[in-house]
Design a protein that fits this description.
- The structure holds 2 protein chains of 2 kinds.
- Chain A has 24 helices and no strands.
- By secondary structure, chain A is mainly α.
- In chain A, helix 4 runs antiparallel to helix 5, helix 17 runs parallel beside helix 21 and helix 20 packs parallel to helix 22.
- Chain B is mainly α.
- Chain B has 3 domains: 44 residues, N-terminal domain of TfIIb (Single Sheet), CATH 2.20.25; 228 residues, no CATH class; 205 residues, no CATH class.
- A 3-stranded antiparallel beta sheet of chain B has the order 1-2-3. Chain B has a two-stranded antiparallel sheet with strand order 4-5.
- In chain B, helix 12 packs antiparallel against helix 13 and helix 15 packs across helix 21.
- The longest helix of chain B has 24 residues.
- The chains are: A mainly alpha, B mainly alpha.
- At the A-B interface, helix 1, helix 2, helix 3, helix 4 and helix 5 of A face helix 5, helix 11, helix 17 and helix 18 of B.
Chain lengths: 464, 580
Amino acid sequence: MDSLLEEEEEAAAVVLKSPAAQAGSALLPALHLPFLPPHLYRPASSHEHKLNFKKSKEVCLNYIQDAMLQKQWKRAAEFLTFYIESLEKDFSTAYMGPSEMIWRIGTEILCHHSHSSMKQFNSFIEQMKTLGVKRYLKVCLEHAFHLLCNGLIDEAYQNLSLAESWRFGEQTTIQDKEMKLIQAYRGLLDYYSWSKQKNILLEHGQNGFEDLSVEQEMHSCFRKAAVNLKEIIKIPGVWDLFVKCYVDLLEFYGDHNEACQVLNEYAYNSKFPANPNAHVYLYQFLKRHGESKKSLISALKILHDIVPSHELMIDFNTMLQKSKKRKKRQLGLEVIFAALDYAGWKENVKAWSCLARQVKQIVISEKHLDWIKQEWNSRKDWWPAFHFSRYLAKRNWQENESLSYEKALVAGILLGKDCKYFKYVSHQGCKAQVKRFRILKKFVNKHNPAYLRISGLSDSSVQP
Amino acid sequence: MDEEATRDFNERCAQCSEVNWGLTDGGRFYCRSCHNVTERTREVVNTDFISNTRVQTISKVLRKQEKTDGGCEWYVCEGFQLVLKKQAEALETLGVCPQMKDEILCNFWRCYLQKSKQAYCNRPAGETVKALSVCDSSTDVDSEPETPSLLHMLSVSESEGDLQTDCSFASSTSKVSESTSLCSGSVDGSLYLMKNQKEKLRMTMPMTLSFCYMALLWLREPMTLSDLLRFVVEGHIPYLNVFQHFPEKMKLCGLDLKIFCVESWPAYEEVYNKMLELAAFLDLPRFPDITDSCFLHPDMLCIKYLMEANLPDELHNWTCRVVKKICIGEADFLTLVPGNKSTRKVKYDVLAAAVIVVVLKLLFLLDDHYEWLLSEFAEERNKNNKEGGPYFEFKKWYKVIKCSLDVEQKKLDEERAKYLWRCEKPLFYSAKKKSKVLKRRRMVVNLQNQFGKLSGSVQPAEKPNPSSFQLSWYEENTDGSCFHGHSLKGILQEKCGLLTAMNPDYWLCTVKLCTEKLCGHLAHYREVDFPQSYHFVLRLFSFLLRIQPSYIHDEVCVIEHKLFNKKLCKKPKYKTSLRK
């Protein structure tokens, strides 16, 4: 097919290289002259300005891109009509040759144009598939995606099966990988019909039926899905979707060991790119199966290292606070402080109450004030403005009383009873005659020395 | 009758060495002295093939009518002859006098064939080259048949300037051609590209236009080179894909593509320079005089460009004065004398445009300051005095021209982007690739249809009628956008009964001209170095002539130097402000 052509071109390019290049002196390394600005090569002649095929098509491409950026799909289609001609010269092996451009631009236009239909889209894609062997699988895959987006699951499945049976010459490594992807997505669709049938069976089971044929089909779907999914997740990569489905299948059939192994591999194999979700899945799996605290903590510890702002950090903190080991409790404090460094947590009552609870505990026990001091040191110059401004005090009080309560407690201990946030909130709380705010005020006043110690003022004779 | 038919066959008879040929009824030549009949035949003039110029003298043996693929044998020069014929016919429909095709162009072409030893001579060139060509391909061991790729061939421009690749390319394929005979459809396609460049001027596609222009110039037809090239781009004169008009039997493939397939528009300089070379190569005598009644005379052309640029008619008086002052209106200056290297050759259209620019500089200075000052003055006057014709306002003119120039330029740019380069009849390098090429072609047509339907605009129905004018302005328009009748009174003053410009100053574009031979230019133009008004005027004419502004700038510099020659020579420190 067309790749033959491409290869010929390559061969030709090699042959045509002049032998003079090799004839230079063998002793001295060749001197590579730097580039001159283009206008210095030689006096500009009319040749450089004359319009040729290539330049004309480049300009045309610019017009298409402009039109697409402005969502003028009709105009883009109009210029594409004239750009298509460049296909007739597309023998290049360059990555972004005209055929790739036409495929991508055409797809985009057909997706957005108000007068395009699925039929048109399909016929376009079928033509694109014949344009280059090297791109065949990629085009197939994207075609399947498009079909899925339009709810045409059966068509997508057919498409993937067809692509899977396609063979051309020796497969390159890239094609090999693409083929695996095709198979994996087909596996995913098998999983989809498996879970559909599973639901039917569950429903029937409730009604007291038994349906052997459905059950059989479900099992065959399982086998087809499992084979392909298993293959893809062996290759290093981010395969969240596939891993989740595969684990779901394994768990359903009770193969917990295999599932656990897959998840562990996915999370801990160093060849795979760092992926927070891998640890999340592992944690969720372990939790589902009632594994030990220790293994749960170790899963979350890595997640904390990768994504300190992850929502599971609340669970992590709770788990650590309960621990008997000092080190773990200290880690808990670290975790919750780190989470609150992120704007996403700013108004999260749960997080603040976690911090408030732990801080309170430490202050009451008067042990490990240095933990707080340590965490606070790096934050004391920006947290007050970030969390404890007067503006925020006002807003938090108006919008969420509990949040302002938790924050005020933390602020009172970290910044002392004179801090703006604490003062405003406790004043408002007392005015509104809410009991817990009065208690809070007392608590903070009582533990003012703790603040002094945290902020390193304890030795001075200054007394408020 | 016989006399004429045998005139060009002047080989000696193999038996008696006489040159005294007659024609048999069968069209063969026989020797009148010894009655020996040769195998040579007089070609029957194939009317659908070539109408008036005579190909038959080219081929020495009976044309082998049928090759395996149903094509016939043909020579590259026959192809060019067809192209020229098509172009001449198109020019005729554009109104060029019929003489051009049948007498002038035809004679030029015959003369070329003879001078380049392709026909009308004793020993056609092809044979000697053939003998030479076999040896120099002996070292190409690693080049397998089919390696010269279409890509490579087409990526090299079809013009001259890459002889290196041409030759190596042709030599690597010549060996192939013997074994596979795939490398060209024409008989001499592969030899054609490796001919010795020094003594012969090799025919190229851009050169067909040089031929046309030369014929037009000889007849002093009212068409400039920029007009000609514009008509080519607009499709009124066949050039791109002209091979599709070749008869069915003339198959193009292999190296023929490189010769006849056009991948870029002809450039002004290229066609012009080739025309000069060609005229010298053909040893043409001095061309008919360009007198002041000719369209190509600067005084005439200035009228045309002043109209097109929407400038006051009164300016013509000034362009004529400049032309007269520096003697560029004289026939000796304007007329082409081929081969005379001592004189600079004239590009009539560029010269006329440059004269107008110089006049504008003389009157308005174009220094981004003075012209606006004058314009304000004229505006003031026009407000207070409605009697008589309005004074010319530079600002108003600028606005009107800028507006329509931007519109037209945008249109032109889009047209360039939307140009379709391919034709119905696709070319393929070899028969092996035919199906592939045809398949591609079909797909392209399919996709074009598909997206054509999705595009908002309706396909343009017809190409616009050819016109010498790209911009038109009419006095009848009431919107006041026509400046032809506006008066220059505001910027002129009377001195000793003569009207002179109020503007006392002038700035030179360059103090010293470069040597054209050394750096290719007489002057160098960078937009940022010059006032914007000046650039705007250059851009306007660059649009009208479809050439780079720098070409007009060069010509402006030359005219200025002629104009100020005395002052520049006498007093080197003529004006400090000239120093850059």
